[in-house]
Known about the structure:
By secondary structure, the protein is an alpha/beta fold. It has helices spanning 48-60, 71-74, 103-116, 120-130, 158-169, 191-202, 217-222, 233-236, 252-267; strands at 3-7, 32-38, 41-47, 62-65, 86-89, 94-97, 100-101, 136-142, 146-151, 173-178, 181-186, 206-210, 225-228, 244-246.
Amino acid sequence: MPVLVASDLDRTLIYSSAALALTMPDARAPRLLCVEVHEARPLSFMTETAAGLLTDLGDAAVFVPTTTRTRKQYQRINLPGPPPRYAICANGGHLLVDGVTDTGWHARVLARLADECAPLAEVREHLLRTADPVWVRKHRVAEDLFAYLVVERELLPEDWVKELAVWAEDRGWTVSLQGRKIYAVPKPLTKSAAVREVARRTGAELTLAAGDSLLDADLLLAADRGWRPGHGELADTGWTAPRITALPERGVLAGERIVREFLRTVRQPT
């Protein structure tokens, strides 16, 4: 039976220059491979070692990139290894099969959101009304499914995020702070639901997962085994659960360790 490996991307497998956490002396820094270019600039990186391991993983398992990114943002990424047959974008709102949205899956997601959550327009209006332009740099809506803000972290009032989370909870939404982005996402819009669908289609009986943020918690809980890096929202809150390994590594070396753990477990699943 195939093993399904579902991994978050940003700050789990791939890293911006600001998130690399290269704390070692320069001469000992790992060689890096650029895996994303945006507007003619290198944007995201892996270590060269992680890139080689990911290539091996793509040959040995059903590797499923699982991201909150929009489809357009995801398609900028050029991961090493064979092109994944399946990818999950927009936090589970889009299931891509050979790069194309599965319209049946997307329709089921939309129906559930309409039944269970306050509408996106209400949430966006609240964000526009309560967020201070002093610390907000951008307002964005992703795939007509969820909203996020790009903020100046050093100016962001901590109480504002907590108040937003309480307000959103009452309306069936969740809030996640990741780097310079604050996400407001409908609770039923989950990576885990889409991963279960891929497991059903592929016949996988073992699912491995990794992620660093609150939006990855449901993905990790749905997996048979999971890993989280030593940085990010889950690490900052001390989040853990059975079958989840909290790694000590931070930054791009955590990404390398995660791929190594995936490959080791695929080869020796017991």
